[in-house]
TrEMBL record, chain B:
Residues that span the membrane, as ranges: none
InterPro entries linked: CT_A_B, Cyclophilin-like_dom_sf, PxpC
One term of GO molecular function: hydrolase activity
Identification of the protein by name: Carboxyltransferase domain-containing protein
Organism encoding this protein: Leeuwenhoekiella nanhaiensis
Record's keyword annotation contains Lipid biosynthesis: no
Taxonomic superkingdom: Bacteria
Transcription regulation keyword on record: no
Taxonomic classification: Bacteria, Pseudomonadati, Bacteroidota, Flavobacteriia, Flavobacteriales
Length: 242, 284
């Protein structure tokens, strides 16, 4: 990709939005996160919170609006083309998913609609390495990229009032995990017993933008075992350095 | 720790401070007081820091029993207020003693009031804020029988103090707004409707979002999911205008046509469902 100057605009009195129009892919995400780190280290002088989405950064200013004006000038002067992608030292996490019919409420529907055997659905869902782009929608809800197109399916015609914590769903070309019990419009294919969000922790979610995730299929018994390990504090996420 | 006991919670009363500013990367909504000007004023009257936790009271107020001496101030919407049988005024400091009962009666003006207490409510901080939000704090609002902790007042300093604030026009119908990131993509006729039209608040409005009844002819599709903040006004493909408020998500996929100023958010927070507003566009 060719790094380019973003469109820089204010969003209200206490935020600045940087927008690019590059393609959504892991390489561009890594560059975007590198830009975020660069700006935090070299450009922004005030107390801020910076979040990224697919191809934008939002700088939220904790304090007054004077610092927004000062930083705006500095941001306009940044030579974005010269910011290179740094090695983010991100992890690849392996997450267990139980695709048993008890959890996979819409496996049959997906199987019929997309003409796939359930074993093929599991194979297609566990094969890719997904990229965490950012979190949104619900606390701890990961926006994952990289799902196999053959699993693409539209949302439920009428959303469910509630799905279980850990429900793994598909909507259009996205897959995701509901970190807590929630109303849900996604097609539910399984359940992940790993705790994705705990507000009592200083770092409430074990993942961050740029991390990679691969699912592996587990039986109901193994799913329950992981749940018990989490309860007793003995669960260790499986990771490998990229 | 001293306590205020909730005898009646009111329609939707929650503990709020200025919200969570460091957790959006985890997808955590900012939350915090809807009308920050009124809440700041209540805290200022009591010499509290601006981020002291207050009670946000919506439309129908609570009844509260003080189990210790306290100093209080109520700002924002005007309610009929009584301490035991004695009528109280808004924007004034009062001393309560153990056993007193504070009752919020009829709502006379505005939609949300703020009850500040000396030192602020001291419920546990979660992710650096006391603001109640489902899934973050154990409860999403106060309930009957809850005991809200605070530090008992030891002196009667400041009682009767008043603070003169400049008139902010908060009870006018103009909502201050800037053009949003996707404003430039709108047809001229849509921009004119947003700038000149009247919009009526829907009854489904809440701390997450305030929707408007009037349809807006929309030629825009969704956008690549991008960041949103409180005050972002989205236009859905179905032509509905939605002003995101303090409990909104951190990202959204609808075009962001306007961005309310802080004053605009506070002004809108004081409007009732069924009331009409106009956006007052500041040219950036």
């Amino acid at each position: 990709m060719i790094p380019q100057k973003p469109k820089i605009s204010r969003l209200g009195e206490r935020a600045v939005l940087l927008q690019w129009d590059f393609a959504i892919n892991p390489e561009n995400l890594n560059w975007l996160i590198s830009v975020k780190d660069f700006l935090l280290q070299n450009v922004i002088e005030s107390k801020v919170e910076v979040i990224n989405a697919y191809n934008s950064l939002l700088i939220n200013y904790v304090l007054g609006i004077d610092s927004v004006y000062d930083d705006l000038e500095r941001l306009q002067a940044v030579d974005f083309a010269n910011i290179s992608t740094t090695d983010l030292q991100r992890e690849t996490y392996r997450l267990p998913v139980c695709y048993d019919a008890e959890f996979g409420l819409d496996l049959e529907e997906l199987s019929t609609t997309n003409k796939l055997k359930i074993s093929e659905i599991i194979e297609l869902h566990t094969r890719p390495i997904y990229t965490v782009y950012f979190m949104g929608f619900l606390p701890g809800f990961l926006y994952l990229g990289g799902m196999d197109e053959r699993l693409r399916i539209s949302r439920k015609k009428s959303p469910r009032q509630s799905v279980a914590k850990g429900a793994v769903g598909i909507a259009e070309n996205q897959t995701g995990i509901y970190p807590n019990s929630s109303p849900a419009g996604w097609q539910i294919i399984g359940n992940c017993p790993v705790e994705l969000f705990n507000p009592q922790l200083e770092i409430p979610c074990p993942f961050q933008a740029g991390d990679q995730i691969q699912f592996y299929a587990v039986s109901k018994a193994e799913h329950q075992e992981v749940q018990e390990q989490i309860k007793s504090g003995n669960f260790q996420l499986k990771t490998e350095k990229r | 720790m001293s306590e205020v006991e909730v005898l009646k919670p009111g329609l939707y009363t929650s503990i709020q401070d200025l919200g969570r500013m460091q957790s959006a990367v985890y997808g955590v909504p900012r939350s915090g007081v809807m009308d920050s000007l009124a809440a700041r004023k209540a805290n200022l009257l009591l010499n509290n820091p601006p981020d002291a936790a207050v009670l946000e009271i919506t439309m129908t107020g609570p009844q509260l029993h003080f189990h210790a001496d306290a100093q209080i101030a109520v700002c924002g919407a005007t309610f009929e207020l009584k301490l035991n049988d004695r009528p109280l005024e808004g924007s004034k400091v009062y001393s309560c003693v153990t056993g007193d009962v504070l009752t919020f009666g009829g709502l006379k003006r505005g939609f949300r009031a703020y009850l500040a207490i000396n030192g602020g409510f001291r419920s546990p901080e979660i992710l650096h804020s006391r603001s109640q939000y489902p899934g973050i704090t154990p409860k999403s609002r106060i309930e009957k029988g809850d005991r809200l902790p605070f530090t008992a007042a030891t002196t009667e300093k400041n009682s009767g103090a008043r603070v003169q604030f400049p008139e902010t026009g908060i009870y006018k119908n103009n909502i201050e707004a800037f053009p949003g990131p996707e404003w430039d993509l709108l047809d001229v006729s849509v921009r004119e409707q947003l700038a000149d039209g009247s919009f009526t608040l829907l009854p489904t409005s809440n701390r997450m979002a305030i929707g408007f009844k009037e349809a807006v002819a929309n030629n825009l599709k969704g956008i690549t999911t991008g960041p949103v903040i409180p005050g972002t006004v989205q236009l859905t493909p179905g032509g509905n205008l939605i002003a995101l408020m303090r409990d909104c998500q951190v990202t959204g996929g609808y075009p962001r046509v306007l961005q309310l100023s802080e004053l605009g958010i506070c002004t809108l927070a004081q409007k009732r469902p069924g009331e009409g507003i106009q956006f007052s566009l500041a040219i950036a």
